[in-house]
Amino acid sequence: MPEPQPPHPPSQPLPLMALEAAEAPDVVARQIERCGPAFAELGQRLRRQPPRFVVTCARGSSDHASAYGKYLIETRMGRAVASIGPSIASVYGGHLSLEGALFVAVSQSGRSPDLLRLVEAAKAGGALVVGFVNAEDSPLAGLCDHFMPLTAGPERSVAATKSCIASLAAYLQLVAHWQDDAGLKATLAALPRTLETARGLDWRPALMPLATVQSLYVLGRGVGFGAALEMALKFKETCRLHAEAFSAAEVVHGPLALVGPGFPVLALTQADAAEPHTRAVVERIVGLGASVATNEAGLAGTTPLPTPPGVAPEALPLAALQSFYGAVYDVARARGLDPDSPPHLSKVTKTV
Known about the structure:
- By secondary structure, this protein is α/β, with parallel strands linked by helices.
- 44% of the residues lie in helices and 14% in strands.
- The model has no long low-confidence stretch (mean pLDDT 92).
């Protein structure tokens, strides 16, 4: 397969962030091939012994992937999903009763002490522990009842890209095999090609005006909310740009007061039951004079974000992240920043 390339010829050497993000389609294809049988086995187990509820444990980009997984599991499997802060075990020494729960830990490094302590507490509390981990030699991998490698390979840029998309793909694999749904399995099988298409779409015309702003909102809803959270984080860490992510439902409960003429908003939608509600909110924001970029087609007064045609709503957040990662580093460079070396941050963050 030819070396992955960004959707435009570089005017200067590409940062690691861009090069690693461009690897995501191959990463996901590799994950599906390698982990598919293990996910199928886990899916059979979960159908035989359905968990009472689901708990996720993650931080940063991994937690944003888990927000995607939360909506996917709740809408598809009808099981409540809660994110538990690792400090419950590591700082407060709490003991959790998780009998009959499915516990999903997501991490790029698998080495943060607080996450490891919570996984140990979950096992002691009776949970079935599943880990989506990139570092296969990590302590976390050894703690899991079911270890699913993300297969992203080394990721040297501080800003996670391919490992984040791989984490969302792992949740999609989990639910497709747990539900044993033919349509979702077809979406999964097409995902590498979907990401390849998204990699070739240029979001720079929509994002580059953000190089001169001070803050913005990123909106999403349902399975798209996790992608909104991740985009807001990337604006912060790579562009030093204050960005807040809101549910398209939550933004009208107070945050809308800040929106006025020229206020920048990036709005994500997907073709599911939430779409008409999100569209109505975006139309309201446009009516307030905001500067809106969106992947919702046909909205007057907005800047379009190109989207692969015919993509299932469950795959659209991954496609959006793929296109976003391919452009946001140019926003950082336009602001005079190195997207590979955000200030005060390191690749492996070890919290307690």
